[in-house]
Design a protein that fits this description.
Order of helices and strands: HEHEHEHEHEHEHEHEEHHEH
Largest sheet: 10 strands, mixed
Strand content: 15-25%
Radius of gyration: 25 Å
Helix content: 40-55%
Length: 325
């Protein structure tokens, strides 16, 4: 009797049992353990404070611990890299600021692909920036500043916390749209930059509205213009720079991202929960106390914002030839 062919036998057996294959393992429920919020700055700053506020409310909502993990350095790249390389299960999310959309344009050494390795979860807040000046500057409006800069080229300077910051590229954008040449003076942080503008050593700076408004209200600084398309609803006295330079706009935003490998249902769940917390009356009131406006966007909307801002600042950085050494 002819012996059966072993390979044919195994193939037939596999086919016969295919309908009885074990079901795939179910995806781990979220959240099944502690969730980490990576903050790419040291403890105590506005990003850290906002993350801890959010973490507390999410912990209540999820019935799981939410732990803030500070990973400072690299212009926020070190902390963001932790998020990009984390296990793609939604249990690691990261806070980002506008450095997230400027870094791809100014840094060739990022250890991750901002668009390819990360995905937006929710935009938490938005806020205006302002162009402020020492009271001694002989210009009270953006139009007067432009005229002064053109009359005295290469003499006016603006202070920033460092190269490649939103403050820096805001000045580059103003130079490009106004056809002037304000000189950039980078410092090792906001405190040193504020000190030299308050003393009059450097006449100008761009900064987020919240930390400078008290200096303005006390008369130690004056506002030449705010950077939204329209005047601030809370302080409509101050003109928008766009009233002089149509199309000029700079916004500061806080948001949350996670690994792009996290399954979409988890991203959507986390985004919806964050948005719900941000829109709570008590949480939104605290955000407004910080000088910001709550947003609570969907992951899709925040992704669109990130991509649009990366493209926008890449054009500005390229035109200004800004590089981080």
């Amino acid at each position: 009797m002819k012996k059966p062919n072993r390979r044919r036998f195994l193939t037939a057996a596999a086919a016969a049992t295919a309908g009885f294959a074990m079901p795939a393992l179910a995806q781990e429920p979220f959240p099944s353990r502690a969730v980490r919020i990576i903050v790419p700055f040291t403890a105590g700053g506005p990003t850290d404070v906002l993350a801890r506020m959010l973490g507390q409310r999410l912990s209540d909502r999820w019935q799981q611990p939410v732990v803030v993990d500070n990973r400072a350095g690299g212009g926020s790249a070190i902390g963001t890299n932790v998020v990009a390389k984390a296990a793609p299960d939604g249990h690691t999310i990261g806070m980002v600021v506008m450095a997230h959309v400027v870094n791809p344009a100014i840094r060739n050494d990022l250890p991750y692909d901002t668009v390819g390795d990360l995905v937006g979860v929710s935009q938490i807040t938005t806020s205006a920036c302002a162009l402020v000046a020492h009271p001694s500057l002989p210009a009270d409006t953006v139009a007067e500043l432009i005229a002064l800069a053109k009359a005295h080229p290469n003499t006016l300077s603006y202070a920033t916390p460092g190269v490649g910051t939103l403050n820096h590229v805001s000045g580059a954008l103003l130079n490009q749209q106004a056809g002037i040449d304000l000189l950039h003076v980078p410092y090792g942080g906001s405190a040193a930059a504020h000190a030299d503008v308050l003393s009059g050593r450097v006449p100008l700076m761009f900064d987020v509205w919240a930390p400078v408004k008290e200096y303005v209200r006390s008369g130690r600084l004056k506002v030449l213009g705010v950077t939204l398309k329209e005047r601030l609803a809370s302080d409509p006295t101050y003109p928008a720079i766009a009233e002089t330079l149509p199309g000029f706009e700079v916004v500061s935003a806080f948001g949350m991202v996670t690994s792009s490998k996290v399954p979409r249902p988890i991203v959507d769940r986390v985004g919806a929960d964050i948005a719900a917390v941000v829109k709570e009356e008590a949480f939104a009131a605290k955000v407004r106390d910080f000088g910001m406006e709550p947003v609570g966007s969907s992951p899709q909307d925040y992704d669109r914002f990130i991509r649009t801002e990366i493209a926008r600042w890449s054009r500005v950085v390229k035109a200004a030839n800004i590089q981080v050494q």
